[in-house]
Amino acid sequence: METTELKKYQEAFHKIEKEEEINERKKFKKNLILFFIIIPCLLCLYFLLQQNSGFHWSLLPLLGWGCGILSWIFTLPNVDKTLPNKEKEAEKLAGIN
Hints:
Largest sheet: none
Helix content: over 70%
Number of helices: 3
Strand content: under 5%
Number of strands: 0
Distance between the termini: 11 Å
Radius of gyration: 22 Å
Shape: rod-shaped
C-alpha cells in the first residue's frame, strides 16, 4: 500500500470506529432513560396494587435490567470482535480493492 492509500485507510477505519462508539453511546442512553422511566412505574404499580402477596415481583425487572445495564457499563471497549468487518469497510471507504 502506498502512503496515501494507507492514510485514507486509517482515516476511514478511525471514522468507522467513531461512528460505532457514538451509536453504542446512543443505545446506552436510550436504554438508561427507559430504565429510569419504566422501573419507577413498575414499583408504583406494585405498591398501588399491593395485596399482601408477600412476593415483590417488581424487583425482578429491576434486578434483571439493572444487571444488563451494569454489564454494559463494565464491558471493555478495547475488546472488539468485529475488527475484520471494520477493516473491510475501511478498505471500501478508502477505495482500496
